[in-house]
Design brief:
Helix content: under 10%
Distance between the termini: 40 Å
Strand content: over 45%
Structural class: mainly beta
Mean pLDDT: 94
Number of helices: 0
Number of strands: 11
Length: 123
Amino acid sequence: QVQLVESGGGLVQAGGSLSVSCTASGRAFTAYDMAWFRQAPGEEREFVAGISWIGGRTNYANSVKGRFTISRDNARYTTYLHMNSLKPEDTAVYYCAAGGRYNRGNVHEYEYWGQGTQVTVSP
């Protein structure tokens, strides 16, 4: 069992930067690939970035590649998403997830989810 709690997020102007964090409880955290998804109003939840449980291999959606960076600190049971050059279309609720494969980004594969944190980018 893994419980996930996101923090960070908020309101930022276009072109700005923001970071969100996801802290896990449960010793099994280090055995899971982790990922960030997002969901805008009226839209389906979409993959943003994933990171492997070992080796730090990463995968990004094309829409965020070069702007977002996912990382993890297994000693702190925490996964991070650093977001640069933010655009209004990045506005969404951001969720961290565990239990899927970082390189597939399939929302249906992920077993554990956080409650989400709002990121709003103003024009």
